[in-house]
Amino acid sequence: MSNLVLVLNGPNLNLLGTREPEIYGHDTLDTIAEALENQAHALGLEIDLRQSNHEGHLVDWLHEAGSRGVVAVILNAGALTHTSIALHDAIKAIPVPVIEVHLSNPHAREAFRHHSFITPVARGSICGFGALSYTLALDAAARLRQ
């Protein structure tokens, strides 16, 4: 049985720590990756964290997750959450549970952020807890493996 969790991050998440820290916090993607690595080790998991500003990369990585038999995918699709039918369809096409993650609470923000194309096809969604959203998602992924 695989012990790999794929952590996928979409557009602009490479700017964490400097982009609107009042909304997204001061943690960088590297800081989040380090915390996840430590947590994954304690849970007997491995993580593979990736980020792309390109929708097609995320689709390809979701397809890869389906063929590799990973435990789960933690997905922060960023703004693509609200626009990408391609990500919706890619998630539906794979047998791997996808956990949707957001640092902020999209439902407490602009109206265009209230709709997610990811939520209906995700196993679950965690939002509004800053970097803690990722660690909560990794804990959920570990429990899915049991």
Automatic annotation (TrEMBL):
Keywords: Amino-acid biosynthesis, Aromatic amino acid biosynthesis, Lyase
Active site, renumbered: 24, 102
A Pfam family: DHquinase_II
GO biological process: amino acid biosynthetic process; aromatic amino acid family biosynthetic process; chorismate biosynthetic process; quinate catabolic process
One term of GO molecular function: 3-dehydroquinate dehydratase activity
Catalysed reactions, semicolon-separated: 3-dehydroquinate = 3-dehydroshikimate + H2O
Pathway this chain belongs to: Metabolic intermediate biosynthesis; chorismate biosynthesis; chorismate from D-erythrose 4-phosphate and phosphoenolpyruvate: step 3/7
Transmembrane segments annotated in the record for this chain: none
Quaternary structure and partners: Homododecamer.
Entry similarity comment: Belongs to the type-II 3-dehydroquinase family.
UniProt-recorded name of the protein: 3-dehydroquinate dehydratase
Organism annotation: Sandarakinorhabdus glacialis
